[in-house]
Amino acid sequence: MASPIIAPFPATRLRRLRRTENLRAMVSEVNLTAANLIWPVFVTEVAGAEGEIASMPGVERVTLDGVQRAAERAARLGIPAICVFPHSDQGLRTEACERAWDPENIGNRAIRAIKQAVPDLAVMTDIALDPYNANGHDGIVKDGQILNDETVEALVKMALVQAESGADILGPSDMMDGRIMALRMALEADGHKDVAILSYAAKFASAFYGPFRDAVGASGRLVGDKKTYQINPANRGEALRCVARDLAEGADMVMVKPGQPYLDICRAVKDEFGAPTFAYQVSGEYAMLEGAIRNGWLSRDAMFESLLSFRRAGCDGILSYFAPAVAEMLA
Ligand code: PBG
């Protein structure tokens, strides 16, 4: 029997460049900095509702003062943007959702408070009716159906007031058809031509939004599920068609949501379209990681590794509840 040929040394020693911290840093293919992060912040108008969210340990609902402090912290840490999520008074949520376009709603007051405290910080908003809807849906509900075109009309009103309040980036997260073009046209016509749209284009009907719905007080209200408007988690092709459509309708940037279970979508979106691409590491992803870290089951490094995975998958940035903690550790 012929003896196997043993080479005198391995042809390629990949370990050479893993030997020291500096060598590893030199050949790191992607990196993570504070500039890659957008910080989602929950703002409440309800007395007594501020404080930690039970299903999101370490994340708090804050008041208007709190959101100004968060803005100052973001600026200090080099985080370029905050995304405002309103927690509104339950008694003021209605079927018609008219508070969504009230200039005095908590979301719009938060935009103005941030701009007053830190004018340069980019403020992003969420456009969807759920924080103001009696039934917890992102759209207007009639006879058990989510009405598409009526919802788009409401979203346009909501968006114009957010733009008027000083928002830099609008984030439609509602998944109605045709909303990007409607928003773009209304913004142009209303003198807000420089307000950008980051479309939640590839937004899946996900179980990972659970803790968020607790945070904004929508969990107990939601009637049914969001499967008639959010994408089936099985569908990559449909997600890419949503992104193509939203870019064609005038979106400046696009988002994949949730993040880590959908890294294949992030990669495909970046490769196919080359547009600024973001991922939302959503509340359930945060809860899993932070819960395990707090229990001592994972080390804090898991937080960095999860965020780096988005950069490797082609994302320019990540919306993450870890943003301030990570930026602090990077500083
Ligand atoms: C609502 C909205 C949701 C999230 C962001 N905007 C929830 C939903 O669609 O039910 C989820 C974010 C998270 O889970 O962190 N339009």
TrEMBL record:
Pathway linked to the protein: Porphyrin-containing compound metabolism; protoporphyrin-IX biosynthesis; coproporphyrinogen-III from 5-aminolevulinate: step 1/4
Keywords: Heme biosynthesis, Lyase, Porphyrin biosynthesis
UniProt keyword annotation of Lyase present: yes
Catalytic activity as recorded in UniProt: 2 5-aminolevulinate = porphobilinogen + 2 H2O + H(+)
Pfam families recorded: ALAD
GO molecular function: porphobilinogen synthase activity
Keyword Repeat appears in the UniProt entry: no
Enzyme class: lyase
PROSITE patterns cross-referenced by the UniProt entry: D_ALA_DEHYDRATASE
EC number: 4.2.1.24
NCBIfam families assigned to the protein according to its UniProt record, in alphabetical order: PRK09283.1
Assembly and interaction partners: Homooctamer.
Assigned protein family: Belongs to the ALAD family.
Protein name: Delta-aminolevulinic acid dehydratase
Native source species: Paracoccus onchidii
Gene encoding the protein: hemB
